[in-house]
């Protein structure tokens, strides 16, 4: 265990230039420190100053007194401490600042012994008179702070990063009950010299102790009298100002968004909500700070109306799993467009797709197609009601825009109470909540429709238990795999978790961006579609049918899904590591599976934090919505770039929270939720 005092000293103080060489009773101020600290038992004594010309004298004086020396970056005190730790292989550093000529070696020794005894990473004496300051810091923590600390205050004052870290074992060591920290005996202003000299003179010796100074002040408080009052908190306020300016400077320059905003004004008069989908609308994008419309997409890049490009992870709400405008799919679609898309008779291609689904999805014996996820979830519900002759539906998750489901949400305007009363909700991973529904609505529930998995893992065989319960109560089980399908595995979450439902709904990724969805399931139930009305003009439109065939074949033949898991794992784990490294666990979190996860923010300010994160990501070329739907173009380079950006932007959010600057840093409108909290 190698211990060392590192005394930081410089002549460049703005409040008191050349104070280190100022005379105190016939000796230079720094010499008081050097002499007094000689009595402390440590392995090394080092003066760390700057490499500036004005600090040469400090080096000479230190060498004369047989101290080791180190000259480092004048602007970065923390780096000087790190250099001391490295150059002298220090395990434990006693940090003393040059503005404490009265420093008491006994007190220093006491602090050091206590830190070693308690094996803390950081110890500071608290409540003592200002001017006797001692900190004891483990060398490894100085190196860690040096590597991670960014704020000016953290670089200048060495210990703030460590003091703020929840991971450091800290001891705020009180050596007396009374708080005397308001008494100022450090050497910050020329006026301080007078009082320090006065104290040394009255004590009349060189080896006075801290206790003797305390006693003297108690007996003769008038010795602290000053001609001129010193400003209160000046150093702290300066540091705060510097930190805030630094945080502001971390923001990238605003994006050019003129065309986006002009288009927004026009669209407002033409399209309610300015979008066909709530989650693509301006509710989800910070108006004024990020783009609102897209011109085109290729791979995982989007280009906005102002020609800015962004890496995207939302990927058309999870639809474009192979990337935007993916050539092998386009080729098939283009060919089909030239052969006609909607006819008087069904196309033979429908059978080809149904056959492919049967080969791929465990529960699929027969299939019907729709355009949106809502088409097929609603078809499933109608089919289940027809099959069972029952009217109630139990649901869990999101299932689309139709009355039967949206009546359970906060956006339920326009939906009659009678319709709402027929859909019952239960909680994911809470099997009792479903059991209660089956008890209360005995023999009246037609089906359980649920997302087999969202961002939460199914726990304690939840899916198996739902399967058993539905069988026991004669209800159908419908897996809504609109999101999980062709993503968790080629055969969907049912294949991934090994639980086979009666019916299942697919959409989104199935056609890589073309409008196609499917309801699949057991023949015995599916055959009822001979009677149940599920029928519309564009149901068998061939461009979308072939896009699904091409997409599924590509996913299968090129083993895309395992690759998405791999890339997602890297990205998700690295984001998690960033959050942990920055100790932001109480601000941000990632949740979900590697192929599809969310990055979101904590607490009542979460939407503001998300707004700020989105704003700074957009400026750095990433369109952030929180969703990470992994897709084929998310290769190593894209993942690297994303992590670089998140690394920077996390800092902004973290500092904004720490310094209460979130509102100040937000440049656009604050995001709004599509559904309010219930
Ligand atoms: C799980 C789930 N089911 C159904 C739907 C409805 O699909 P669509 O919006 O294509 O109608 C969605 C849409 O996001 C969904 O996430």
Sequence-ordered SSE layout with sheet pairings:
Blueprint: E1 3-8, E2 23-24, E3 27-28, H1 29-37, E4 44-50, H2 56-64, E5 68-72, H3 77-87, E6 92-97, H4 105-118, E7 122-126, E8 135-138, H5 139-148, H6 152-156, H7 160-164, E9 170-174, H8 190-203, H9 210-219, H10 234-250, H11 258-268, E10 294-298, E11 301-304, E12 309-312, H12 315-318, H13 327-338, H14 349-360, E13 366-370, H15 373-388, E14 392-396, H16 403-406, H17 417-420, E15 423-425, H18 431-440, E16 445-450, H19 462-472, E17 476-480, H20 492-497, E18 503-506, E19 517-521, H21 523-526, H22 542-557, H23 560-581, E20 588-593, E21 596-601, H24 606-619, E22 622-623, E23 627-629, H25 636-658, H26 662-665
Parallel strand pairs: 1-4, 1-6, 4-5, 7-9, 12-22, 14-15, 14-16, 16-17, 17-18
Antiparallel strand pairs: 2-3, 6-8, 7-8, 10-11, 11-12, 13-19, 18-19, 20-21, 21-23
The structure holds pyridoxal-5'-phosphate.
Pyridoxal-5'-phosphate binds next to helix 15.
